[in-house]
């Protein structure tokens, strides 16, 4: 079970939030690289005409590009958006909405969180609720000129929260037409397969030699077999490019045979792609062919080179450099064959039809045991890498032992430093969540809960509440399947903290109480004592202060008695907070003073400063202005040094009241205004505390006007 780094109020876990969004953050340039577009000028002209018309009307431009898989929707959208870069200095945002993903479409809230971070919002300041994220996103984009690509959309409802405000441009791609976006002013473009001349031109562009000119009839026959789908033409062309001595006639014969064999397997008109892919697959070197089919087992949409190394990994330390080289060489072969495409940040991805083909080949050419072993290697790779990141971020954290499979485990380079490790976890979060969702059905439930456990520092610091709760739901089910009580308690407590932060105190309390019963039954007295703090916080959020105070009071004695002095200090701080809220200022002063001493002795500077703030607030209630100012000023000095905005705002608001009572109006106004700015910076501008701060400013204004 995680240690009780918990406190009353918002669940910040000792996170220190920057005083303002980083204005120096690089402009996001997330669009994938551009490839050449053949004969799509009518569509591109129509898209640009729509954008110009929207600009004249002073509104954003929204366009949806639909068509078959492999018809070139993303390529057309990219060609259009890349040309707009000079006119849109706000940057480029891109997201794969995952309509064809095996895990189902992405939730727009997760996409919004990534967009907000790309636009400079610190992760811990991203709101928890979809509506709040949407509002913040539109506020941020109201005065920016951005281009946004939303790839592979499932529905109009998924797209709508992701539309920016202001004079931005958004392109949406989907296999389906999205008439629901019409109400948003969407311009629809439906792509048909290329005509024969354009398809032949694309083939010639892919080959870059004279064979198309020398064999025009065969070239035309080849692109007809590819049904004019750009993906199929490029795959066939890549195959020919790798064999400069081979005639197009040979490819036509082979593709005709393969086309007939796969006719019954057609899905949405993609049998021509399958035939072309089979020919390319058969020509791969053995190592690249095996990597291709095993990468088809990867549960996420994108991956980096370390995944390939994990699939090739060896237990021999001396061989690992060679393994990495072999993996990198095989990845290059797959790119050369147009079986992989580049994603941002030196990452790789399959076109969704190619991924389906790779999965089919894994089922055909790998035994069930070999597939299971490869899936476990991928899962263990992510578990080991996430655990390494956890150790870097929080070396004092009580990490549980990990249970890896029998195969060698490859660990990604996640460092150096805690920020780099957090960034790695955030970047890989979609893959980590995909592994968590897959692990139980794949037969390794320990990976499910242990990988969830390894994500604790990311969830605590960057507030991915949707993933936090979803991961712990899976991890809890896995722990119960295993009959592992310790794992179940760990999932209940860390998952409950996520539910508390997400605004679900009823669910959190239920989870904490279940953990308390299990820990009591198993004789874990310290673990049970730690749940007192958790349960008290949930009760406090549920407006049950007397019950919360009772649990905090018990925790002040039981935690130190079982060896955790610091947690006992936090319990005293939480108790003092309840006492102050219920009009017991003298008692709150005693508990806050004791908490301050304990937390300082334990080296917990942040929570000691929080205790000093509470102590100052209690003195203020009793009109002891000198003591209040001393405690609050001391706390603010520490909290500002940590850029802990929320707690700094609380101290400033109380210091403003001290100044106001002493008649120092200008100082009071400055403190109130700074407090409001800080509440806003952490997404608490609508909180009761911010409202009280607004009231203080209005009161000063009324006094000055004589109202």
Model description:
The chain is mostly helical and 707 residues long. 63% of the residues lie in helices and 5% in strands. The protein has 31 helices and eight strands. The strands form two sheets. Strands 2-3-4-1-5 form a five-stranded parallel β-sheet, sandwiched between helices. Strands 6-8-7 form a three-stranded antiparallel β-sheet. Helix 5 links the parallel strand 3 and strand 4. Helix 18 packs antiparallel against helix 20 and helix 29 runs antiparallel to helix 30. The longest helix has 26 residues. It is globular. The two termini are 56 Å apart.
Distance between the termini: 56 Å
- The percentage helix is 55-70%
- Low-pLDDT segments: 7-22, 261-269
Give, in spatial order, the strands making up the sheet with the most strands: 2-3-4-1-5
| Shape label | globular
Q: Major sheet, described briefly?
A: 5 strands, parallel
Mean pLDDT: 86
Relative strand content: 5-15%
What class do helices, strands and sheet pairing give?
mainly alpha
Count helical runs: 31
Q: Report the radius of gyration as a whole number of Å.
A: 30 Å
Total number of beta strands: 8
